[in-house]
Amino acid sequence: MTATQQGRRIDVLDGRLYDDPWETYTWLRERAPVYRDEQNGLWVVSKYADLSHVERHPEIWSSGAGVRPVPVSMSIITLDAPEHTYTRRLVNKGFTPRMVAKMESHVREVTRGILDTIASRGEIDFVEDFAIHVPLIVIAELMGLPPEDRHLFYRWSDDMMAGDNHFDADDPVMQRAQQAFLEYVAYLQGLFEEKRRNPADDLVSILLGVSDEGGLVQQRPDDTSLEADELLMFLVLLIVAGNETTRNAITGGLEAFSRFPEQRERFVAHLGDTAYRDRAIEEVLRFTSPVISFLRTCTQDVEYGGVEMKEGDKVFLLYQSANRDTDIYTDPDSFDIEREPNDHLAFGIGPHYCLGANLARMELRVVFEEMFARFPDMRSKEPGIPFQRGPSSLVMSIQHLPAVFTPESKGSTP
Amino acid sequence: MRVVVDWNLCESNAVCQGIAPEVFLVGEDDELEILDENPPEELRAKLDEAVRRCPKAAISLEG
Ligand code: HEM
Ligand code: SF4
Fold this sequence. Notes:
The complex is a heterodimer.
Chain A: H1 22-31, E1 34-37, E2 42-45, H2 48-56, E3 61-62, H3 83-92, H4 97-118, E4 123-125, H5 126-131, H6 133-143, H7 150-162, H8 172-197, H9 203-212, H10 230-259, H11 261-269, H12 274-288, E5 293-298, E6 302-304, E7 307-309, E8 314-318, H13 319-322, H14 357-374, E9 379-380, E10 388-389, E11 398-400, E12 402-404
Parallel strand pairs in A: 2-8
Antiparallel strand pairs in A: 1-2, 3-5, 4-12, 5-8, 6-7, 9-12, 10-11
Helix pairs in contact in A: 4-6, 4-14, 6-10, 7-8, 7-10, 10-11, 10-12, 10-14, 12-14
Chain B: E1 2-5, H1 15-19, E2 24-26, E3 32-34, H2 44-53, E4 59-62
Bound molecules: protoporphyrin IX containing FE and iron/sulfur cluster.
Iron/sulfur cluster binds at residues 5, 10-16, 24, 26, 32, 54, 56, 58-59 of chain B.
């Protein structure tokens, strides 16, 4: 079947598609659940059950050949078993529910500190002035960075993320991504020296110890390039995977609470009820689904969903679409913080299930709780208007969101 | 029926415990413990749910 025979030509790598993708997703799910994007040579999977099936069968649909259309090898996200299993068990020690719980009270303090900086303003750019900070500070502290170096991370992580789907060496976006990568790596090499001298109880010190003892599997043992250094690449993956994702869940979540103000009122009325709050956060994740897509490569010929995939074919997974599937959800386009059950796929499922899921959930809990406790009327200035997005087919990439709230008067105590 | 957990995949996030606390427990040491490897048939619905909802797809049922 060709794209035109299926009735519609959709370029899934056009980042602008995701400015307003919802009608396209519905069409795909209803008319061509495994769609052929001829132009890009991709099978496109849009339904919940199919996405879940593909992710649960890595022996057929592998990550080892890359998870993006322009393949970039990047630590565990582009490893298959057994290397994936081994490395992931190692790094997972820093991300268990218990480790995350230990960080919570500190994340709360950090969040309050950021709220202090906006308290008297009443009108902010929600992204730049608020959402961007917590995820970045959390990763920086997890890694054990000195606070004065944090500011460097904002640009590095965004520039590397923006490089997705760019490959031409003359492309300025690509050049910026490459530049950020090299600067970050140089920074990490300095940091490693420092951590070897003064090891502490942080992720970099711990993984460095393991790595120095030969405990991290190198993806290509004979390769001495930076891209083959497992520790460096894991730390690249960490700042790329943990920043814009969580930031977009925070921003997207505020927009959802603004477009459905009765949900915000409910949330505020239940502050302190942890089960209620946790359920609400799952709906924020489902509804926003900040990761748009990843892909897999067929390890063999396989018939699936009425099409014949060949070994080496690429399969493109649409997370946002899966999370709006009417086979699973009643009224999926409404934001309903009491939705139950809500086993969304925003973090994927199976062996590559988001390593940072516990951490991201904790950040979202703390952020929405603290923010609405202090500014119960925090909202998007113009709910419902399209997001100002970067042209990404990987993440939501919301750049700005004007927001308003009743400020605290200058003299009042917080 | 026998409950099998792939220990290479399990990450002790306790989703299964939330569904079937009779069978799964994540302890203080952050390790999942299977309290009952051969649970009674009346737990099957819950266990099917645990299989489906384990985010790491680490649980299977035999028999
Ligand atoms: C709301 C925020 C987040 C969302 C929606 C999200 C989403 C995802 C998704 C869908 C995957 C699966 C990739 C695949 O199947 O190929 C993934 C993997 C991953 N995420 Fe997240 N993520 C978030 C936050 C974080 C945070 C905070 C961190 C770390 C600090 C993180 C680190 C990772 C890593 C390391 C992987 C690779 C895991 C593997 O391949 O085994 N993520 N994430
Ligand atoms: S839900 Fe799965 S990964 Fe989580 S503790 Fe249970 S078996 Fe382990």
